[in-house]
């Protein structure tokens, strides 16, 4: 089997030695070529060309941003060609998609799981989310967000460009700072989904393709605990932003069961084929932890059985 190993050399939680060990182990099982990403969007380019160059498998090593790029590249495989399978190894600070698949957050251990699956010929198929707007036509693997969470992602990206290292503590600190400054007290969002009355005056809106939405260290954060790769999309939105109620909801997200389908201060949706989020004015928007810009309307679609996964 020919495989392309797409490595993000800037991944925050891997070392050159670990990358060499993983590369050597993979090369014993598959006919492996290695490519390093050099700029934003490079993973899309590499993965989109993989089928044309005869690769049957693409493996990524990096964070959720690297995963998102490679997945979008694979979904751009030219028609008439067989789309390669995908295996993802963790190298970022959160690795939400990989951990949601049940793989270890340790890249060497995750590589061991992938190698075992390759030897045994095991694979599975999962669904993805897709967004389109005036500016976008992209897939996401685990989440998209409008408002507060996207503003946090935007600010963390700015801090990283200035030399800060991404970590769960940094994300939490930025989230609290934006809340206390009142930057997120903007109820301009509206969510529409088939068969439901529109939900209006929302402060934050999330669309998920699996659970958890993210991790706080080793603890899963679950606003949509019934979200699943094999179902449609789930949604969650804040209808209130009172400090006490917000804290109560955060604690529920951190609990083993996550947030119930119904309760005070929020609204949720389950197993939706499509959803649309509107804003009265441009708001921060992110997918898979990557800030895409400010948007006024984004359409979301569930794409079943979109991707073959090894591991």
Automatic annotation (TrEMBL):
SUPFAM superfamilies: NAD kinase/diacylglycerol kinase-like. GO terms for cellular component: plasma membrane. Gene3D superfamilies: 2.60.200.40, Probable inorganic polyphosphate/atp-NAD kinase, domain 1. InterPro entries: ATP-NAD_kinase_N (IPR017438), Diacylglycerol_kinase_cat_dom (IPR001206), Lipid_Phosphate_FormReg (IPR050187), NAD/diacylglycerol_kinase_sf (IPR016064). Residues 1-135 form the DAGKc domain. Its cofactor is Mg(2+). It holds the Pfam family DAGK_cat. One of its GO terms (molecular function) is ATP-dependent diacylglycerol kinase activity. The keyword Magnesium does not apply. Keywords: Kinase, Transferase. Belongs to the diacylglycerol/lipid kinase family. This is Diacylglycerol kinase family lipid kinase.
């Amino acid at each position: 089997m020919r495989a392309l190993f797409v490595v993000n050399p800037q991944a925050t939680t891997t070392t050159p030695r670990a990358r060499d060990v993983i590369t050597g182990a993979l090369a014993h099982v598959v006919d492996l070529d290695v490519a390093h990403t050099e700029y934003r969007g490079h993973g899309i380019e590499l993965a989109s060309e993989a089928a044309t160059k005869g690769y049957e498998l693409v493996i990524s090593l990096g964070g959720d941003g690297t995963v998102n790029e490679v997945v979008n590249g694979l979904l751009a495989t030219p028609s008439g060609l067989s789309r390669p399978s995908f295996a993802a190894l963790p190298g970022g600070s959160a690795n939400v998609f990989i951990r949601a698949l049940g793989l270890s957050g340790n890249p060497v251990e995750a590589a061991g799981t992938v190698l075992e699956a390759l030897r045994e010929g095991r694979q599975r198929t999962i669904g993805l989310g897709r967004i389109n707007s005036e500016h976008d036509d992209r897939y996401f693997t685990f989440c998209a967000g409008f408002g507060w969470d996207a503003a946090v992602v935007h600010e963390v990206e700015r801090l990283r460009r200035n030399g800060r290292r991404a970590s769960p503590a940094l994300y939490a600190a930025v989230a609290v700072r934006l809340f206390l400054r009142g930057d997120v007290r903007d109820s301009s969002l509206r969510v529409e989904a088939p068969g439901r009355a529109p939900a209006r005056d929302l402060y934050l809106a999330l669309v998920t393709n699996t659970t958890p939405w993210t991790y706080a260290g080793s603890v899963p954060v679950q606003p949509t605990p019934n979200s699943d790769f094999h179902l449609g999309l789930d949604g969650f939105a804040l209808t209130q932003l009172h400090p006490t109620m917000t804290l109560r909801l955060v604690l529920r997200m951190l609990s083993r069961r996550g947030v119930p389908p119904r309760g005070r201060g929020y609204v949720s949706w389950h197993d939706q084929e499509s959803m649309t989020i509107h804003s009265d004015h441009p708001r921060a928007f992110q997918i898979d932890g990557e800030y895409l810009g400010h948007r006024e309307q984004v359409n979301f679609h569930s794409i079943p059985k979109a991707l073959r996964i090894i591991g």
